[in-house]
């Protein structure tokens, strides 16, 4: 039967299947195995899936064989941390910088200017490019902004208190300007006129902090007021229409952090503060697909799925629970680039940092696929809760890294796709007055790549040539004193070490490399 089908038809069918289905088919008979192994298009699609990539859909001069070679080179350079390009970018000594979509943006002190640089990505054929955004609004705080270069989007925080006599009452407060990252003008795709959204307030709070994220048409901000008499907030708008889709409030430390799971759901780290001493933080997946401008307390907010974290010895209200996941799961590369492939929306890990006061803390790595798989099994209108043992051990990996060392860095862009970077102390100092050396560990929580590397290693080959990469696919048991019980986790991962020889002041990671901050410079290392 199969022999009667044209090979071109079988190839076309396979190209529409997921990786697991294709690999199962290759085990059925020699015919299907040979078709897959001898068809460059199918080999490329399999390689993309293994490395957590997908076709960018952008014009490229590379043929299929050249794309296979490029993708293989990109992966091997990450595995060995063999960088193709290393250079420095001067720091402008501003209050803030951001790396997103391989664009490094930094504020310039005493100005309303933001400077941007497209970082080089030699393997994917992306060249350096520099530009700046001039003359942003005088009320803009250049220390608070977020970018999405693929959408030419720049959101800059500011306030209208200095102009209270000249603005409508509903526009008095903290504003978020929707700008074009290339020109600084109002973004052409927003219907807002003027192009901003507002959080009303009666008086300026100099201590207020904004934590902003974007995902497709949506922009979210968590606001910390550092005032026991004012509730912190989490708001999500559609930045194209200006419609408010979600408005959560909570006492200080209740809304710990959030990340986008999709363009319909967010994950919120929620810490009960009105409960008992042993109440633990938990994760809540909350839908925002329907506009809902009504203010809701986080403790009473409707959620789709709640997931318990490992039971702690006590309530970490005076510590930190932080979620990090970059880029947004819906991110796509800019159409101005010619990169043949990009990070897959399915290949993301959420890094959960649990850092109680005066304890070393830990990091929990959870693929977004873990959240999605459980979310797909519940009724949307029925709030479901899962205990840690129901979702965590097989769907995550606990790392006993030095969280305080991570927290001491100037920036927190330590995750991209399935990779996470963390500093570690390397050895003992030669002199008691010296600090121990710091190395960087790059973790990769791509399950397929870890499985492939383990298979290659078991056959007697070196998975990365001269690399120092290690593969971990067995269980680990943590007996940290912060937990009530030992915590076992299984998520496979790979790890490679990069000795530095100096203490970094900050770290950033992108799709094509690392950025190390030291001596008022950005040291860029690109694959």
From TrEMBL:
Q: Output the InterPro entries linked to this UniProt entry.
A: F-box-like_dom_sf (IPR036047), F-box_dom (IPR001810)
Q: Tell me the Pfam families matching this sequence.
A: F-box-like (PF12937)
Question: Where's the F-box domain?
Answer: 1-45
Gene3D superfamilies listed in its UniProt record: 1.20.1280.50
The identity of this protein, by name, is F-box domain-containing protein
Source organism per entry reads Pterulicium gracile
């Amino acid at each position: 039967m199969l022999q009667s089908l044209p090979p071109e038809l079988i190839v076309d069918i396979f190209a529409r299947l997921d990786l697991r289905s294709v690999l199962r088919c290759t085990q059925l008979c020699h015919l299907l195995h040979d078709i897959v192994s001898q068809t460059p298009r199918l080999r490329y699609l399999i390689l993309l899936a293994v490395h957590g990539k997908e076709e960018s859909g952008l014009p490229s001069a590379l043929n299929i064989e050249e794309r296979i070679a490029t993708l293989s080179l990109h992966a091997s350079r990450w595995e060995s941390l063999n960088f193709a390009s290393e250079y420095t970018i001067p720091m402008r000594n501003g209050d803030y910088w951001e790396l997103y979509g391989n664009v490094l943006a930094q504020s310039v002190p005493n100005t309303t200017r933001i400077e941007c640089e497209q970082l080089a990505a030699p393997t994917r054929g992306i060249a350096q490019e520099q530009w700046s955004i001039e003359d942003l609004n005088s009320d803009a705080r250049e220390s608070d902004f977020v970018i999405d270069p693929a959408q030419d989007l720049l959101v800059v925080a500011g306030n209208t208190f200095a102009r209270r006599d000249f603005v409508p009452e509903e526009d008095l407060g903290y504003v978020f300007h929707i700008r074009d990252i290339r020109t600084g003008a109002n973004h052409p795709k927003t219907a807002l006129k003027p192009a901003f959204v507002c959080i009303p307030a009666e008086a300026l709070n100099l201590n207020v902090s904004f934590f902003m994220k974007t995902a497709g048409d949506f922009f979210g901000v968590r606001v910390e007021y550092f005032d026991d008499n004012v509730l912190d907030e989490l708001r999500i708008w559609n930045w194209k229409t200006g419609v408010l889709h979600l408005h959560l409030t909570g006492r200080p430390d209740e809304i710990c952090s959030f990340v986008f799971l999709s363009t319909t759901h967010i994950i919120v780290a929620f810490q009960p503060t009105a409960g008992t001493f042993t109440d633990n933080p938990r994760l809540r997946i909350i839908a925002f697909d329907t506009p809902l401008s009504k203010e809701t307390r986080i403790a009473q907010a409707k959620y789709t799925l709640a997931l318990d974290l490992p039971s702690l010895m006590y309530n970490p209200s005076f510590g930190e629970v932080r979620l990090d996941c970059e880029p947004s799961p819906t991110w796509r590369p800019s159409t101005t680039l010619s990169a043949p492939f990009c990070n897959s929306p399915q290949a993301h890990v959420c890094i959960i940092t649990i850092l109680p006061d005066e304890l070393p803390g830990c990091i929990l790595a959870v693929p977004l696929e873990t959240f999605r798989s459980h979310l797909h099994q519940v009724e949307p209108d029925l709030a479901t809760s899962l205990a840690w043992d129901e979702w965590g051990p097989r769907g995550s990996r606990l790392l006993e890294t030095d969280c305080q060392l991570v927290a001491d860095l100037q920036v927190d862009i330590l995750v991209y796709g399935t990779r996470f970077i963390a500093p570690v102390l390397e050895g003992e100092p030669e002199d008691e007055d010296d600090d121990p050396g710091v190395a960087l560990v790059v973790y990769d929580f791509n399950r397929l790549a870890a499985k492939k590397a383990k298979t290659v290693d078991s056959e007697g080959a070196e998975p990365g040539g001269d690399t120092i990469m290690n593969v971990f696919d067995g269980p680990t048991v943590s007996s940290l004193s912060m937990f009530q019980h030992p915590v076992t986790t299984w998520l496979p991962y790979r790890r490679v070490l990069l000795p530095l020889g100096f203490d970094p002041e900050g770290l950033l990671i992108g799709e094509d490399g690392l950025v190390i901050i030291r001596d008022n410079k950005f040291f860029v290392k690109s694959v």
